[in-house]
Amino acid sequence: MHVGLVKIENNRLVRVQYLNSKWERELGDMMRVEGIEMRVGVIGDSRNDVIRALNVLIKKQNKIVRQQNKANALIF
Fold first, then answer.
1. How many domains is the chain partitioned into structurally?
2. Residues near 2 by Cβ (< 8 Å), separated by ≥ 6?
3. Which end of the chain, C or N, has fewer beta carbons within 10 A?
4. Which residue spans within 1-76 are E strands per DSSP?
């Protein structure tokens, strides 16, 4: 099963990771990978599908951060 794991802190995407799981997973399941707790955020049919979906999440997060940085620059 191809899954994408996400770690979100303070409403920000902190980490994403692809994992080929041996067992069935559901969205929202908690997993500990390399000592870091992450949630299943994406389930796909193939590795490429999951990676594409994770890239979309990263792009959206980056867009939000850039907009916030612009707004903060205008304030100062």
1. 1
2. 18, 19, 20, 21, 43, 44, 45, 46, 47, 49, 50
3. C
4. 2-9, 12-20, 30-33, 36-44
